[in-house]
Amino acid sequence: MSEPITLDPSQYPDTSKLIQEDDTPLDSFINEKQQRLLTEVLSGYQLNDGIPFIVAANVGIFRNVRLPAIVPDVFLSLNVTVPDNLERQDVRSYLLWEFGKPPEIVIEIVSPTPGNELGSKFTDYALMGVMYYVVYDPLGELSDRPLQIFQLQGGRYVPKTDLWFPLVGLGLTLWQGAFESMNRTWLRWCDAEGNVISTVEELAARLILTQSQLTETQSQLTEFQSQLTVAQNQTKQALLQGIQLGLQLKFGSQGLEILSEISGIDDLNLLQTITSSLLTVEGLEDLRQIYLS
Prior knowledge:
Layout: H1 29-39, E1 53-57, E2 61-62, E3 74-78, E4 94-95, H2 96-99, E5 105-109, H3 120-128, E6 132-136, E7 147-153, E8 156-159, E9 164-165, E10 170-179, E11 182-190, H4 200-251, H5 259-263, H6 268-277, H7 284-292
Parallel strand pairs: 2-4, 5-6
Antiparallel strand pairs: 1-3, 3-5, 6-7, 7-8, 9-10, 10-11
């Protein structure tokens, strides 16, 4: 992780003359969507150990008051928080002497508009101390590799062979799918297993699907219970018919005097016991003791 920059407040430079908002337009709607996909998805997301962080798009980073800002498409910085009062001149942009450290990750999205992603920015971010520099080139403007990641070593960037950032607890992956009804390849944050961090819309869709599945399951359970009740009633009627026949054969018309009592029994196991006992009981009182006990 980058070493903190410590300055006494009296050493802070005058920021009143810094040009922090130049209203430069974005390259395209696609880039704007891609930037939001990388920032909004982490809104409310909790990193390892609850580390605070800032993830932002198109926010200027100043490493020196005498130099113009560098405005990455997206950056992520750990152990910092957005100031409460963003109206203050000294916190509208990411001033290294205010936040005390550079971002851990900077992402540049290459478009047909020249951006010096592998030129001056490559050098500037290294001088700034950004640990990981990501160049996403979906149109192949710079090379045939859509995604290049570099790691700072000895003050210079070297290619990083994997897509995981251990300092941050996040990774990046190329994902084919639809975001805001646009189906294409997107650059997305992911966990250690490569599972993309879900958007609010994806979480909502998953919740709706889960609720629908739950409703379907409850409907199936209700139908099963209904069928079970019908089957139990049919079994009871069959047992009562057998008991009625047994009472008539063994005790004649007198045996039918207790049939109304037995008909009120819903326990199928007890009715089965009564049916079996008709072969061995000596009298009606003996049979009555079976279901009254």
